[in-house]
Design a protein that fits this description.
The protein is mostly helical and about 325 residues long. It is built from 15 helices and four strands. The strands form two sheets. Strands 1-4 form a two-stranded antiparallel ribbon. The longest helix has 28 residues. It is globular. The protein starts with 7 loop residues before the first helix and ends with a helix. About 45% of the residues are buried.
């Protein structure tokens, strides 16, 4: 393959640090300082642990979203997908309880079902987008509506609740800790570490960068564009399933409102972290920092009471617009 035809992101060293690349970390430090000034309780270990634990759901999904956006795609269905997976998982756990019994085998079976549904949902998004040659925005907008309607149907317009006996067995997945750190944070860290290796140290990751940088050049470079793009959606479906497995023992229920705005938060975390919305460049560590920044903004707003928590979505929307405007400004320089 001629060097001139190789996309720039494949040739450019990714570890060249600069003030621009460190932007998310600088913003995080500034937020920590601001939070400490407005309320000394911000740095309380219990508060920081709570912020990081709540970050885990969106952070895990955002890791998968980083692959999709880096490859030039988008997925608006992740919130509805999480609600649907939660509903199926709760129905399955309640239904299998009499057969398997109240033990960890039952929880493992429920997790396997959640993973299967997540992988299938991601595969559907990927195949329709690539084989149907339909814009990812339209496809995932449609599946977002489908998944939301399905969970509403399964709940008969109400709420699906996990059996109280199962909650007792499943509870440690969210509420227990290992070495003093809550389990969801460990899961988030593991997903982020695996995602970073996959994106930056494997052939698949290089192909994701290449497709997002220039899909036509990637195709001429003998990269199977459709397969790689589909795999990014499958990977995102897997991440949504993992986030759901951590989420279900927290509330023990699923309804039509479960996962609302999660797609906005996941996309915001990715963009704040420095991944280009148009694809071609992405970084997992930036996404992790972006997810923490979002949670901290919400936490600081709650601590100060300066803005109603009902306006958190508006704040996140403004952050996305500003981040994309900054990306456009930096690109034109």
């Amino acid at each position: 393959m001629p060097v001139s035809s190789v996309p720039e992101t494949l040739r450019r060293p990714m570890a060249t640090w600069s003030l621009k690349k460190l932007g998310p970390l600088i913003a995080l430090v500034a937020l920590i300082i601001l939070g400490t000034i407005v309320n000394p309780a911000f740095l309380d270990p219990a508060n920081i642990t709570n912020v990081l634990t709540r970050t885990a759901f969106i952070g895990i999904i955002a890791v998968g979203m980083t692959f999709v956006i880096t490859a030039g795609g988008l997925d608006l269905s992740v919130g509805s997908m999480a609600a649907f997976i939660s509903g199926v998982m709760i129905i399955s756990l309640n239904g299998l309880m009499d057969t398997i019994g109240l033990n960890w085998m039952l929880i493992a079976a429920g997790m396997l079902i959640a993973l299967a549904v997540g992988l299938l949902a991601g595969l559907i998004n990927g195949l329709i987008t690539t084989k149907g040659r339909i814009d990812a925005f339209i496809v995932t907008l449609g599946t977002m509506s489908i998944y939301r309607s399905l969970v509403t149907y399964l709940a008969d317009g109400g709420t699906l609740s996990l059996d109280f006996g199962i909650r007792g067995v499943y509870r440690p997945v969210y509420y227990d800790a290992f070495l003093g750190i809550p389990i969801p944070i460990w899961v988030f860290a593991a997903v982020a570490a695996i995602g970073a290796v996959l994106l930056n140290r494997t052939r698949f990751g290089r192909q994701v960068f290449a497709i997002g940088s220039n899909e036509d050049v990637a195709r001429y470079s003998a990269i199977n564009v459709d397969r790689t793009k589909t795999l990014t959606y499958v990977l995102l479906g897997l991440c949504v399933a993992i986030a759901t497995m951590v989420y279900v023992p927290r509330l023990g229920s699923a309804s039509a409102t479960t996962g609302l705005m999660w797609e906005l938060e996941a996309i915001a975390a990715v963009i704040i972290g420095g991944t280009l919305l148009k694809g071609g460049y992405g970084r997992i560590w930036g996404t992790v920092v972006g997810a923490i920044i979002l949670s901290m903004i919400g936490n600081i707003l709650n601590l100060t009471g300066a803005i109603s928590s009902y306006l958190n979505g508006a704040v996140q929307g403004i952050i996305i617009i500003v981040a994309v405007l900054m990306q456009g400004g930096l690109k034109r320089r």
